[in-house]
Amino acid sequence: MSLEADVTAAYRQAGAVLADVLEETAAMIEPGVRLLDVAEAAEAAICDRADGCAFPANISLDAEASHASPGRDDERVFDDELVCLDLGAHVDGYIADAAVTVDLGDNAALVDAAEAALDAALAAVRPGVDPGAVGAAIETTIRDRGFTPILNLSGHGVGRYDAHTAPSVPNRETRTGRALAVGDVIAIEPFATTGRGKVTEGAVTEIYSLVAPAPVRSRTAKQVLETIEATYRELPFASRWLDSPRAELSVRRLTDRGILHGYPVLQAESGALVSQAEHTVIVTADGCEILTDG
């Protein structure tokens, strides 16, 4: 089913904003620059040009693959790492999601593997195709270059105020039992690694989202929850976006009660490297329209 014209326009606007911001902030990534400065610059630019961030800026280093975002007092600076920059923007809730890998070391072949896999995946998208066939294109391309796709991460649909919805777009050959249809909006994100091809949860969590409101006794926690409901809805947010460090304690308490959901950093095994490439597309009658291609 084709999207309504105003919905398509919102997706296109979000994608255009995101393409520009991704290019601008990726250019900021150099040795000696603070991760927090890049994240805040990206988020400010998105909020200035669109209706808001679809999720906090993800800046993943080396073995990290997803959900890595600088904390409030993070003083880390870039050195010679492999840096994955993953950003999201929304217009009236309609989301665009894109990522690029910046190589500050000597990992051009790994970066190329993810980018080539994305190109192959985009070429495989058309109505009637099982998303697993898109995954097959990703897997073959990455393995042909001597690397491994991350098998327990996948691309995904993007809905209104929902950054991860159906259909799943795997990074490997499989059958999902679903066919892509005209009007599907999907984020395709190959991950290539020098490791075994699996990620696990790390110890750090900086990103959260609202699961369901519930009564709370603490005045501070109640205020934090009201802010989250009014400002972010179900979209992920960073604890550093809240007013004060005291609010972060309330976030942890709300997470312990199941009111919020935390997203720990996802990472490959120690010593492995991860690269990522991502575009958001609308499935069309003859293929797809890339929304985040600047």
How is this fold's topology laid out?
Layout: H1 5-26, H2 35-49, E1 52-61, E2 64-66, E3 82-91, E4 94-103, H3 108-124, H4 131-144, E5 148-149, E6 154-159, E7 162-170, E8 185-188, E9 191-193, E10 200-210, H5 219-231, E11 237-238, H6 245-256, E12 260-267, E13 274-276, E14 279-284, E15 287-290
Antiparallel strand pairs: 1-3, 2-12, 3-4, 5-9, 6-7, 6-8, 8-14, 9-13, 10-11, 10-12, 14-15
Helix pairs in contact: 1-2, 3-4, 5-6
Q: Can you describe this structure?
A:
The chain is α+β, with helices and mostly antiparallel strands and 294 residues long. The chain folds into two domains: 5-199 and 269-290, Creatine Amidinohydrolase; 202-265, Arc Repressor Mutant, subunit A, CATH 1.10.10.10. Helix content is 32%, strand content 31%. It is built from six helices and 15 strands. The strands form four sheets. Strands 7-6-8-14-15 form a five-stranded antiparallel β-sheet. Strand 6 (154-159) and strand 7 form a beta hairpin. Helix 1 packs antiparallel against helix 2 (35-49), helix 3 runs antiparallel to helix 4 and helix 5 crosses helix 6 (245-256). The longest helix is centred in the first third of the chain and has 22 residues, at 5-26. The radius of gyration is 18 Å and the shape is globular.
